[in-house]
Amino acid sequence: MGRMKSSNRKKIIGALGDPRIKPYLEASGGNEKDALALYRWSVELTASIQETLGVTEVLLRNSIDVQLRKWNNEQLGHSASWLLESPASPLRSMTKSKRKEALRRAEKSATCRSASHFRHGQAVTHDDVLAHTMFGMWKDILPNHSPGADPEKTENKNRMTLWEDAVKNAFPCAEDPEGEKTYWRVAHLHELRNRVSHMDSLLNVDVLDVTRDAFALVGSIDPVLANWLTGTSTVSAVYGKRPE
Q1: What residue segments make up the domains of the chain, in order of their start?
Q2: Does residue 82 sit in helix, strand or coil?
Q3: Out of the domains of life, which is the source (predicted)?
Q4: pLDDT for the residue numbered 1
Q5: How far apart are CA 83 and CA 41, in angstroms?
Q6: Predicted pLDDT at 138
């Protein structure tokens, strides 16, 4: 590839916008060529992180969902989807708005299926809604260990009750009786997920440390899954290619 003209470089920087490119220009001492190289690396790193976080999210929600299905059926005395129908308390109030939004998104997705889609015209299932839940919902189900969280607040009592009765069983390989380790791992991943979703700068984020949270979280579900995720993740390799 030939050398880029300075005028083209300035055009690209202008198209990206000052707020987005500013951190890269600052990190590159104002050198536009180096700033674009750093930005391109950041884009590649973001894609790598999204891949690892996406797999982590699937494993996290599936493991918690198994336990919530079991718990909900026991509370209601019959088999029912906690995502398609109102679940037992306190799960009902804890997830109400997020469950409705996931159902809305799943129904919208179903209506967009083409005639050639293998599930065209089929009703939305529990798994459809599960796939449309947001990462933040799982953090909000876990015991709240954020600074200043009042353990006597009804919402936080409910989160701890659900943890003790069901959710902790989703992490059988964790030594985490109060759910503190799990909460912070998911909270860190949720924060990183939001950053990469908006293509925010990762220059001052210890992405390797947060990625280790993903591996540890999955390892608390099953070490076999963690070994597989670690082996397939490209975050460390991409991170190591950061331009000087």
Answers
A1: 49-239
A2: coil
A3: Bacteria
A4: 43
A5: 39
A6: 97
